[in-house]
Amino acid sequence: NTAGGRPRVAHPWRWLLAGVALGILAFIAAATIPVPKVIEGPGRTWNVLGTVQSDGQSTDLINVSGAQTYDAQGALRMTTVSVSGCPGYPVTTLDVIHAWFDPDEVVLDRDQVCPRDVTAEQQHEVEQAQMTSSQDTAVTAALMETGQADSMILTVKGTSEERGDGVFKAGDVIRSITPAGGQTTTPSTYAQLQELMTTIAPGTEVQVVVSRDGQDTSLTMTTLEPGKDSGRQGSLLGVMLDVRANSDVNATFSLSDVGGPSAGSMFALGIIDKTTPGDLTGGKDIAGTGTISSDGTIGPIGGISQKMAGASDAGSQYFLAPASNCADVGHEPKGMEVYAVSNPHEAVQAVEGIAAGDTSSLTTCQAVTTR
Q1: Separation CA 240–CA 218 (nearest Å)
Q2: pLDDT band for position 212 (50/70/90)?
Q3: Are 107 and 37 a contacting pair, CB within 8 Å?
C-alpha cells in the first residue's frame, strides 16, 4: 500500500524491540514457571561420631545408653542427596539447564522420585518413617556385630491381607515354628527365620508358638506363597515384624529434618565405634551410604554419584558403597577410594583396613562389577 505515493517502510528498530520483548518474556517464563522435573545434586554430610545443634545446644548425634562408650576420633560421614522439584521445592527450566551443565547433578522426571498425587506432607512422613526404621535396624545390626546381643526379638506388628486378622495379634513375639511332620525350630534372629521359611513349601500347615501377654500361645495356620515378583523361595507367614536386639543397650539419634533409609549402614558403624575400645577410623575421614535390613544386609540406594561428590566436598577420601550399588559407581571424585561392603562385618573390616593404611585385601567396586 502507498500513502501519498510513498511506500511504507517498517523501521528495523521496531522488529528489534519486538524480539527483545519476546526474549525477556521467554526468560521470565523459564525462570518462574515450574516444570515436572527433579534435580538431584550433592547434599550435606554429617559425621555420625560428632555432634549436632539441637535447641541451641550441642549434643552427640548418636547417644548410647546401657553400655560403656569410648571417644571416637576421625569421621564416619553419612551422606545425602539434595533434591529439588518435589512438592514445595519447584524447579524451572533455567534450573534444569544449569543442572545439565553440572557434572555432579542429574535431571529426572518428577514421577520417578515423587509422584504427582503425593503431597509434601505425605512425602515428609514417608521419609521420616524410613529414617526411624533405618535407625532401629542399625542399632540391632551394630549390637549383633559387637556381640552385645546374640539374639533378636521378633515381634508381630501387623499381618498381610492374605493372612487376615484373627490369627496373629500385634505384640505377639515369635518363639518357635513347627511344620506338620517336621522338627521344631526356635529362630533367634531374623536371618534364621528367613532361612527356615525358605525350606517350607507354600500351603504347609505349621504350628507357631508366640508369647502373648506373657503367656505362650500356640497358633495353627498354613503358610502363604510369596509374590511372583518377590524373588523369594519357600513360603511366608504373612506377618510384618518389628525386629530388635535382645539387649539392654540402646541408641538414640539427635538428627532432625533428614529423611530416608540410606544412612543405616553408617549409623551402625557409628554405634560400633562408640561402644568398642580403640579408634576404629584411625583418625581418617570416611564416608559411606547404604540401607541396612533386619538380616544385616547393606542394601542399595539412589544418588550414589551425588553422595560421593558431597563426601568429597566435605573432605572424605574414602567411601563405603553397597556392593549391590557397584554398577552405579563410576567417575568417582578425584583422589577418592571406593570400597564395596555387603554387611556390617565387611564395613568394619573396610574401616579397619583404611585406618591401618592396608587396603590391599578390601573389595573395590571394580572387582565386584568385573566378576
Answers
A1: 18
A2: very high
A3: yes
pTM exceeding 0.85: yes
98 pairs with which residues across the strands?
none
User: Which stretches within the chain are classed as H helix?
Assistant: 12-32, 93-100, 110-113, 120-146, 190-198, 264-274, 304-314, 344-356, 365-369
- Please spell the DSSP secondary structure of 134-171, one letter per residue: HHHHHHHHHHHHHTS-S-EEEEEEEE-TTT-SSSS-TT
Mean per-residue pLDDT of the chain: 89
SS3 208: strand
Higher pLDDT, 346 or 114: 346
Is there a contact between 104 and 41 (Cβ–Cβ < 8 Å)? yes
Determine whether 178 is exposed, middle or buried from the number of CB atoms within 10 Å of its CB (0-12, 13-18, 19+). middle
Among 12, 54, 2, CA closest to 253: 54
Give the residue among 159, 179, 187 at the shortest CA–CA distance from 222.
179
**Residue 310 burial (CB count, 10 A):** 25
Task: Express each pLDDT in 318-329 by its tens digit.
Answer: 999 999 999 998
At 226, give phi and psi (nearest 5°): -65, 155
pLDDT band at 205 (very low <50, low <70, confident <90, very high): very high
For residues 210 and 191, is the Cβ–Cβ distance under 8 A? no
Tell me if 342 sits within 8 A of 297, measured CB to CB.
yes
Amino acid at the residue 266: M
